[in-house]
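Exercise 7. Given the encoded structure of a 676-residue chain, write a plausible sequence.
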């Protein structure tokens, strides 16, 4: 009986192995049949149209239209391939054909595969498509596939929308299960950050071929085909009319404008100037246009100043410094300080022009007139909270400050950004050495200078937190996907700062006074109530930057705005009016203060930017005055390109040429400038 059971077990095991083997062979057979190496079955990829991008009001910003391209799969190349007739069909020379094939192999490098279809010709015209399709069955290695091409329906907001471009090998490795050489993917902006939603899912059709390589229908009635899915449509939180208006106000200026709805964190506008027209991202010359934007070292249009540029936030930072000080218990709403034309320490001082001299003032008045002394004294108290332990004091300050979203990327849905900087004890120990710094080494932090850096987005975010009396929603650019509102708790749940709600009232009251009778009184209007704060960010290379934050309406905030105008000077001169006009446009639908609007639009800082660029070129020995004789210009170029002469020597020689009034330069000519 025992022997019989053993035999049964052996037969059972062998039967099981046999069944598994049969299934494996069947699977392997199907896998082989569907492999590109099998010339009797041809795989055809279907590239889905990318999803549309719309603004919050349903305005279409970016769409897709079908385009067609010719692909090449080397394994399916016939031995008797008629190169000349094919070249005639697609209207290229034999030399072009050979060059294209070699280029595909070179581009693929070690990852090149004979089994993979590569893009051979892009952007086939309707005429080419009709002509080639008719005879393409003769050339089994070539297929026509449909690919999406972007359409831009607007002329601005390029920093938000971004662009698509052909993937490289590095990109393919990041998602090798989806991308093939020649495929397009989002490379910047929303196109990049929401690539997986916008791209859709590729389709694959397996086509049965006869002995003459003619299609005879789907393989097994399409049982193994993969259905194509069109990309998802995305609704942005952006109000495009508001975005366009903010960009208009930044005409001939550099800087950024960020407007947030404090009630949900939706970004209403995110302007960066110079403005990019996204239409340059399409067409046959798009790579040339993208390169031109990338190498524009003067204006840097591809540098998104709204989220990448980190500026000292200036006096707008006094708002959060005051809040943190109250939370740390070193001052309260009744604390007063006396300003004596500034904050004095040793033989130095931080000047102040608040006008409240030699009289005690509270925080609301200090905010109203932007008293430097008040907030410097406050910062001294912050750093003195723990006697003889400045490191513990500044770490507590830094921790509370970071709860406002500064010094952090905030985990938003934007493709690029900057962390900014909120220093702590470790930062200063590395910079100066342990016990080598003190309160007065870093006193500039008190007024938003020193080592404090924040982007316009971060500044707008802490303004939103002030509007909400202690919480904010992570700023985000997308409102809905395929019509379904976003549900990610990172964006839908409030983030609470480490400052209690009870401390905010005096700060908001002070911000209201700024507009009513303080440093921002120029923007006052009866149309809606506003809270604001001016800021002037010091700039070592030219005029100071103009900064302003605004909350409106004051009683029930619907918008929080931060504006930075590079080299705009005092915060109330340019940044303040821009913020107020943007708020007016959003809240009322139009702008009545036409004279203010006109003066802002006409303001032009290009001469200042040119001067700064020329100063930079002079510092590195690359400046050539436009009015120099050609002989002098050629000599300077020769010197600049010579690396056998030291940098200082090149600068000295160029300086001599520029300042010489002679037609020849004997001193220069004595030096051999050739690289022999």
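Solution.
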């Amino acid at each position: 009986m025992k022997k019989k059971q053993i035999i049964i077990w052996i037969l059972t095991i062998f039967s099981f192995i046999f069944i598994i083997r049969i299934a494996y062979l069947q699977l392997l057979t199907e896998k082989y049949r569907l492999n590109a190496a099998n010339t009797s079955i041809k795989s055809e990829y279907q590239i889905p149209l990318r999803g549309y991008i719309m603004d919050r009001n349903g305005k279409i910003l970016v769409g897709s239209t079908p385009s067609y391209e010719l692909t090449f799969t080397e394994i399916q190349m016939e031995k008797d391939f008629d190169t000349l007739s094919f070249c005639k069909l697609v209207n290229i020379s034999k030399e072009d054909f050979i060059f294209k094939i070699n280029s595909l192999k070179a581009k693929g490098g070690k990852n090149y595969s004979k089994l993979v279809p590569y893009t051979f010709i892009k952007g086939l015209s309707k005429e080419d498509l009709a002509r080639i399709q008719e005879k393409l069955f003769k050339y089994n290695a070539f297929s026509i596939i449909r690919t999406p091409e972007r359409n831009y329906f607007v002329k601005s907001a390029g920093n938000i929308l971004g662009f698509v471009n052909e993937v490289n090998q590095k990109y393919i490795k990041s998602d090798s299960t989806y991308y093939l050489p020649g495929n397009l993917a989002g490379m910047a902006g929303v196109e990049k950050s929401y690539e997986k939603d916008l791209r859709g899912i590729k389709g694959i059709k397996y086509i049965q071929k006869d002995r003459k390589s003619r299609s005879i229908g789907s393989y097994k009635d399409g049982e193994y085909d993969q259905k194509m899915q069109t990309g998802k449509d995305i609704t942005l939180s952006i109000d495009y009319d508001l975005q366009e208006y903010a960009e208009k106000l930044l005409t001939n200026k550099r800087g950024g404008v960020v407007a947030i709805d404090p009630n949900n964190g939706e970004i209403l506008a995110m302007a960066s100037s110079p403005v990019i027209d996204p239409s340059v991202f399409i067409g046959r010359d798009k790579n040339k246009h993208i390169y031109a934007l990338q190498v524009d070292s003067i204006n840097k249009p591809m540098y998104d100043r709204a989220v990448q540029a980190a500026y000292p936030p200036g006096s707008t930072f006094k708002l959060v410094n005051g809040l943190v000080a109250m939370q740390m218990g070193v001052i309260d709403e009744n604390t007063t300080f006396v300003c004596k034309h500034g904050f004095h320490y040793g033989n130095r001082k931080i000047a102040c022009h608040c006008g409240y001299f030699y009289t005690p003032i509270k925080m609301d008045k200090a905010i109203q007139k932007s008293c430097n002394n008040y907030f410097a004294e406050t910062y001294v108290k912050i750093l003195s909270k723990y006697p003889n332990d400045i490191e513990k004091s500044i770490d507590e300050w830094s921790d509370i400050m970071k709860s406002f979203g500064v010094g952090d990327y905030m985990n938003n849905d934007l493709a690029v950004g900057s962390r900014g900087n909120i220093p702590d004890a470790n930062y200063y120990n590395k910079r100066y050495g342990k016990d080598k710094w003190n309160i007065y080494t870093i006193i500039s932090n008190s007024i938003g200078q020193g080592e404090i850096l924040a982007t316009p987005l971060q500044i707008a975010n802490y303004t939103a937190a002030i509007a909400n009396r202690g919480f904010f929603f992570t700023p985000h650019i997308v409102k809905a996907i395929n019509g379904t509102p976003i549900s990610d708790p990172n964006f839908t749940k409030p983030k609470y700062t480490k400052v209690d709600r009870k401390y905010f009232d005096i700060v908001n009251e002070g911000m209201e006074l700024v507009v009513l009778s303080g440093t921002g009184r120029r923007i006052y209007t009866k149309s809606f109530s506003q809270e604001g704060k001016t800021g002037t960010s010091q700039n070592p290379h030219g005029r100071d930057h103009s900064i302003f934050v605004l909350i409106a309406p004051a009683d029930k905030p619907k918008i929080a705005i931060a504006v930075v105008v590079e080299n705009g000077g005092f915060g109330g001169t340019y940044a303040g009016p821009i913020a107020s006009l943007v708020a007016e446009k959003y809240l009322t639908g139009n702008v009545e203060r036409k004279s203010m609007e006109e003066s802002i639009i006409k303001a032009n800082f290009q001469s200042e930017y040119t001067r700064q660029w020329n100063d930079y070129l002079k510092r590195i020995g690359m400046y050539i005055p436009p009015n120099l004789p050609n002989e002098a210009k050629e000599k300077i170029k020769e010197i600049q390109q010579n690396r056998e002469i030291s940098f200082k020597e090149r600068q000295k020689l160029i300086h001599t040429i520029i300042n010489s009034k002679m037609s020849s330069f004997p001193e220069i000519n004595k030096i051999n400038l050739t690289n022999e």
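Remark. The mean pLDDT is 88. Students should compare their own answers with the one above.
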